[in-house]
Design brief:
The complex is a heterodimer of chains A (about 110) and B (about 110). Chain A has no helices and eleven strands. Chain A has about 110 residues and is mainly β. At the A-B interface, strand 4, strand 5, strand 9 and strand 10 of A face strand 4, strand 5, strand 9 and strand 10 of B.
C-alpha cells in the first residue's frame, strides 16, 4: 500500500504540552501534506513539505521529512484545546492524487 | 474567492435511489478530485478529473458510481441505486494544476436509510 500511516492512532495531552504525530509511507513521493479535520467537518490544509525539503515551520507547527526512512513528523508546540482534531498525512505521488493515512485523533485537555 | 463549494451538505436517500453530489472548484482550478471517508477512517481516493476528462478513476467502484466534470458547471459524483454501505462523507478537492496545493470542500454527508 502506498498510503501514509499515522502513529499513534490516538493521542491525549494537556494544554501547553507538545504533540508529535508520525507518518510513514512506502513509495516515492513528490510531497507530503498534513491536514486537520475537526469532528464532522471538512479538511483544512496545514502544511506541505516537498521531497527535497527536510523541515518546515508554520506558526506552532513543525514538520520534518526523512525520505530515506520514508517518514514524516508533525509537531504542534504549546498545544491548545482548540487543537483537538484528527490529523492526517497525505502523500502526493506522480499522477497528482493524494493518498491519505487513517489519521491521529488528538485530544488536548484544558 | 469562495473556495471549493459542495452541495448539498447533507443528503439522505433511501436504498435504491440515486444520489447526486455537486462540487464547484475554486475559481481558476481545473483539476477536481473526489474522496470518500467512512466513519472513523481516512479519506480514500475515488476519481481525478479535468474539464471534460476523467484522468484517474482507479478508486471508483466499477458499478453504480460515475463522475463528470463538464465544460460548464460543477463536477458531479453520481451514485445509482444507493445501498447502506454508501453512507459516508464525500469530499471534493480542487487544484490549479498537478503538483500544486489542494483545497478541500466541506463535504457532503450521505446517509442511506
Amino acid at each position: 500500500s502506498q498510503q501514509g500511516e499515522e502513529d499513534p492512532q490516538a493521542l491525549s495531552i494537556q494544554e501547553g504540552e507538545n504533540a508529535t504525530m508520525n507518518c510513514s509511507y512506502k513509495t516515492s513521493i513528490n510531497n507530503l501534506q498534513w491536514y486537520r479535520q475537526n469532528s464532522g467537518r471538512g479538511l483544512v490544509h496545514l502544511i506541505l513539505i516537498r521531497s527535497n525539503e527536510r523541515e518546515k515551520h508554520s506558526g506552532r507547527l513543525r514538520v520534518t521529512l526523512d525520505t530515506s526512512k520514508k517518514s514524516s513528523s508533525l509537531l504542534i508546540t504549546a498545544s491548545r484545546a482548540a487543537d483537538t482534531a484528527s490529523y492526517f498525512c497525505a502523500i502526493e505521488t506522480s499522477g497528482s492524487r493524494l493518498t491519505f493515512g487513517e489519521g491521529t485523533q488528538l485530544t488536548v485537555n484544558p | 474567492n469562495a473556495g471549493v463549494m459542495q452541495n448539498p451538505r447533507h443528503l439522505v436517500r433511501r436504498r435504491g435511489q440515486e444520489a447526486r453530489l455537486r462540487c464547484s472548484p475554486m475559481k481558476g482550478h481545473s483539476h477536481v478530485y473526489w474522496y470518500r471517508q467512512l466513519p472513523e477512517e481516512g479519506l480514500k481516493f475515488m476519481v481525478y478529473l479535468q474539464k471534460e476528462n476523467i484522468i484517474d478513476e482507479s478508486g471508483m467502484p466499477k458499478e453504480r458510481f460515475s463522475a463528470e466534470f463538464p465544460k460548464e458547471g460543477p463536477s458531479i459524483l453520481r451514485i445509482q441505486q444507493v445501498v447502506r454501505g454508501d453512507s459516508a462523507a464525500y469530499f471534493c478537492a480542487s487544484s490549479p494544476q498537478e503538483g500544486r496545493g489542494y483545497t478541500f470542500g466541506s463535504g457532503t454527508r450521505l446517509t442511506v436509510v
